[in-house]
Amino acid sequence: MKPILVTGGAGFIGSNFVRHWLNMEPSPVVNLDKLTYAGNLASLSSIAQDSRHSFVRGDICDERLVGELLHAHRPWAIIHFAAESHVDRSIHNGQDFIRTNVEGTFCLLQAAREYLNHLSSEERSAFRFVHISTDEVYGSLRPDAPAFTESTPYAPNSPYSASKAAADHLVRAFHHTYVLPTITTNCSNNYGPCQFPEKLIPLMIHNALNGKSLPVYGDGSNVRDWLYVLDHCEAIRQVVHKGALGETYNIGGQCEKNNLEVVKEVCAILSELRPGPNYASLIRFVEDRPGHDLRYAVDISKVRREIGWTPKESFSSGLRKTICWFLENSSWVESVTSGSYREWIDIHYEAGRQRIGQ
Ligand code: NAD
Ligand code: TYD
């Protein structure tokens, strides 16, 4: 049976997607990942013996490698997750974001286009290039503004979101110009198992368990629309089968929370599952992120109507599952919080971020 090619399948969402796909679908997975600081084979350990999963360490910017993989494995779909994904890192240095997110996506599109020329018309019509993007391309919402729809104009505000917006435009252009069978999804903030502890929720869990401060940027009033990662993976799986070519689909958790509410809920669940310390007393308000987007919220009417998907988890149920996973998988956390992780925490929080109140 023909496989799918997944890029970035050792990262947070990609590894959850690969496991979910192999649970639900017959087709094998070829997983191409460079294993940057954010990619971890430990996230794939449960499928290490599964013969339907082949891992290839490599760079999506390596057009020759991508071409060879396509011709050798003849996938019927590419699901493109690989990216530099952390806004704060893009503010420190955006170079890798332009390389992987923009040039890497361009390279994959080129390779896919060339590969399609070698397929039969039946194979060509079954082929899908699914590009995973973010709601951050739409910019920031005022508190009372309606949620982002697929026709909200792009207005990215960080080097990360600008690089994803550029990638989305390339995907659109390859569909329009070369009729490449593409679909783009723009999702909200994910959380769940295997998320690298540089992002808000896993950082708070990790710091709280280690008695470290819980750094909340600004006054904690910025709002995100939280999506449990397995709900997201199921949405993508359904989009692969039912999505219309050239279309984009917004995917969100229907769960807006401000950051302070999120951190307090992490503390409350931890107090129940690991009683003892007063976790909330570790909350510290620190210097804000430059250009910090105030609010993201995603209108999921289109994916609900056309694909038939809605999220299953509430924030409380998803967060509880996430915290249980982190408590039961301390060896995963230890394996990813290596030297380079500690270096990032030192640069970003210790030297650069002054505490501004309590
Ligand atoms: P992640 O940072 O956890 O993982 C990214 C993966 O890509 C890593 O395994 C890394 O090794 C790999 N990678 C990076 N550069 C590569 C390259 N040049 N070649 C091959 N592999 C490379 O990211 P994530 O959170 O899993 O996000 C996956 C996708 O979803 C990204 O495209 C991101 O923009 C998008 N997204 C994420 C979120 C979120 O909340 N995490 C929200 C919206 C959209
Ligand atoms: P993050 O997980 O980095 O995702 P994104 O920037 O893509 O939304 O951050 C989520 C929110 O949490 C965002 O408003 C920034 C805030 N935040 C903090 O307050 N403290 C932190 O230490 C981090 C990493 C994020």
Tell me about this structure.
By secondary structure, the chain is an alpha/beta fold. 44% of the residues lie in helices and 16% in strands. The protein has 13 helices and 14 strands. It has helices spanning 12-24, 63-73, 87-92, 95-116, 121-126, 159-178, 200-209, 229-242, 259-273, 301-307, 315-328, 330-336, 339-351, and strands at residues 4-7, 29-33, 53-57, 77-80, 128-134, 182-187, 190-191, 214-217, 223-225, 227-228, 248-251, 256-258, 283-286, 355-357. The strands form four sheets. The chain has a seven-stranded parallel sheet, with helices on both faces. It has a three-stranded mixed sheet with strand order 8-13-14. Strands 7-10 form a two-stranded parallel ribbon. Helix 1 links the parallel strand 1 (4-7) and strand 2 (29-33). The longest helix has 22 residues, at 95-116. The N and C termini lie far apart (57 Å). The mean pLDDT is 97. The protein binds nicotinamide-adenine-dinucleotide and thymidine-5'-diphosphate. Nicotinamide-adenine-dinucleotide is lined by residues 7-8, 10-14, 33-36, 38-39, 59-61, 81-83, 85, 100, 104, 132, 134, 164, 187, 189-190, 196.
